[in-house]
Amino acid sequence: MDLNALETSFDLVAPRGEELVELFYTRLFETAPAVQPLFAHTDMARQRQMLLAALVLLRRSLRDLDAAVPTLRRLGARHVEYGAEEAHYAVVGATLIGAMAEIAGEAWTPAYGEAWTEAFGVVAGVMLEGAAEAQLAIAA
């Protein structure tokens, strides 16, 4: 992973973090309206805060991603309870990266998008491992 690109691009959008997560959820519900019912009983203000906190944690953990693995697995397991499906992860990743690019504007480069696509693939993979473990536990 291009850690410098990830850190630099995140630092571009971080000052507008609240706007970023607001834009993300707006775009997510426009792009994938089928996921909106998953948030029917969700306090969206709190949800936006939690997403921003998760992104900040990821930014802080980039140089030691192994330290974030347990948290990401737990997050994946919790998403099973919410009804998240594997197919949702790609939509969420693309929407988040698109929102970051929009917030960064002309400062965003293709290298940033590529770095985040790779990073989100890793994050989603770990979360899906946690989701699979949770589904096995439910089935048992």
Structure, described:
By secondary structure, the protein is mostly helical. The protein has a single domain, classed as Globin-like, CATH 1.10.490. Helix content is 76%, strand content 0%. It contains six helices and no strands. It has helices spanning 3-13, 17-31, 44-61, 69-82, 86-104, 110-139. Helix 1 (3-13) crosses helix 5 (86-104), helix 1 (3-13) crosses helix 6 and helix 2 (17-31) crosses helix 3. It is globular and about 50 Å long.
In CATH terms, what is the fold-level topology? Globin-like
Strand content bin = under 5%
The SSE order reads: HHHHHH
Derived structural class: mainly alpha
CATH superfamily name? Answer: Globins
Name of the CATH first level? Mainly Alpha
What is the mean predicted local confidence, pLDDT?
A: 92
Contiguous runs where pLDDT drops below 50 for at least 5 residues: none
Radius of gyration: 15 Å
For the termini, the CA-CA separation is: 37 Å
Please outline the major beta sheet: none
> What is the total tally of β strands?
0
Principal-axes shape call: globular
So, CATH architecture?
Answer: Orthogonal Bundle
Give the number of helices.
6
What share of the residues lie within helices? Answer: over 70%
- Count of spatially separate domains: 1
